[in-house]
Amino acid sequence: MRRGDFEAMVRAMTAEVPAEFLNGVVSIDVTGKAVPHPVRADVYTLGECIPHGFGGPDDEGPTIRSSVELHYGSFAALASLQASFDWRHEAWETLTHELRHHLEWRARVPALEALDEAVEANYARLDGEAFPPLFHLHGEPVADGVTKVEDDVFIDVVLPAGEWKKAGGMERGFVWHGRRWRVRLPDRLPDVLFLTVLGATPEPAGDLVLVLRRRPGARDIMRRAVVTQGEASATPAG
């Protein structure tokens, strides 16, 4: 299906949704992105609900605003893998699923505030500014130990102190989209390392970041964690 036809189909589907389910939805858009699942091979994220915080008040108080996106690139990637792929059925399931997320966001104000703070912290990371060392843990959970902040995917790895001391300069394995990869770590490791991974395929829509951190001990209560960033090229493992 061509993108223009897909967009027209999504607009027609949106018109079928009851108005009460769209309260607080700023927009429903089609993007060209293909968003591979961080862990599972041949799985792609078809859509997302992106909260933006509070808008104007409604009858029940402040309204949480969200945007819904359907990713045409992900639909096309799955269609190329599945001969029986049903574009219309999958688009409707994705649209209604993301609208349910919007309703859930409206009921989870504290979680929304934490995600907003994670987004701001990630902007600081991208700009090379100081940022909270554990902000990625407040992103959207994607899989065990994997979170997502906007388009950036974070794989969280916690190492015991003994293993941490030996990890510098060594290779570290991780799983991306059902395949094992490895990167070489810097010779000296800080308390928390945000390592942007290059070369893993299929490429994510944003950054793929391996967050390696030393398991804190009692002495860490009185000291500030040392946080640095870096880049490393990934190679297939095995």
- Secondary-structure-based class equals alpha+beta
Which fold does the CATH topology of the largest domain refer to?
A: HSP40/DNAj peptide-binding domain
In order across it, which strands form the biggest sheet? 6-7-8-12-11-13
**Mean pLDDT, as a whole number?**
88
Tell me the number of helical segments per DSSP (H or I, 4 or more residues long). Answer: 5
The end-to-end distance, rounded to whole angstroms, is 37 Å
- SSE order: HEEEEEHHHEEEHEEEEEE
Low-pLDDT ranges: none
Strand content: 35-45%
Q: What characteristic shape results from the CA principal axes?
A: globular
Describe this protein's structure.
This protein folds into 2 domains: about 5-105, Zincin-like, CATH 3.30.2010.20; about 130-235, HSP40/DNAj peptide-binding domain (Sandwich), CATH 2.60.260. It is about 30% helix and about 35% strand. The chain contains 5 helices and 14 strands. The chain has helices at about 5-15, 70-80, 85-105, 110-125, 160-165, and strands spanning about 25-30, 35, 45, 45-60, 60-70, 140-145, 145-150, 150-160, 170-175, 180-185, 190-200, 210-215, 225-235, 235. The strands form 4 sheets. A 6-stranded mixed β-sheet has the order 6-7-8-12-11-13. It has a 3-stranded mixed β-sheet with strand order 1-5-4. A hairpin with a 7-residue loop joins β2 (about 35) and β3 (about 45). α1 packs across α3 (about 85-105). The longest helix has 21 residues, at about 85-105. The two termini are about 35 Å apart. The mean pLDDT is about 90.
